[in-house]
Amino acid sequence: MLNKKPDLDLIFQALADPTRRAMLERLSQGPAAVSELARPFEMSLPAVVQHLQALEASGLVSSEKVGRVRTCRIERDALGAAEHWLHARRLSGEA
Hints:
InterPro entries: ArsR-like_HTH (IPR011991), HTH_ArsR_DNA-bd_dom (IPR001845), WH-like_DNA-bd_sf (IPR036388), WH_DNA-bd_sf (IPR036390). With 95 residues, the protein is of the alpha+beta class. The protein has 5 helices and 3 strands, in the order ααβααββα. It has one domain: Winged helix-like DNA-binding domain superfamily/Winged helix DNA-binding domain (Arc Repressor Mutant, subunit A).
């Protein structure tokens, strides 16, 4: 993400889906090709791509295409923004 403030609504909307959370879990281990991310799911490749587009729109994932392979990676800054928001709410409840 290039100096763009993360949109928390889009982040939490993306995190609400178990398939997207599973994709993020895999990407937390390192970058992966779309075909690799699709492997564990019983869904079409276009459906997987739609999930990845939602993750990209939220800023949680970025991708780069080299040749015929699109590689995705987690964007830790966006994940950190959600974590920071949750942490601030938790602290405000302790006051």
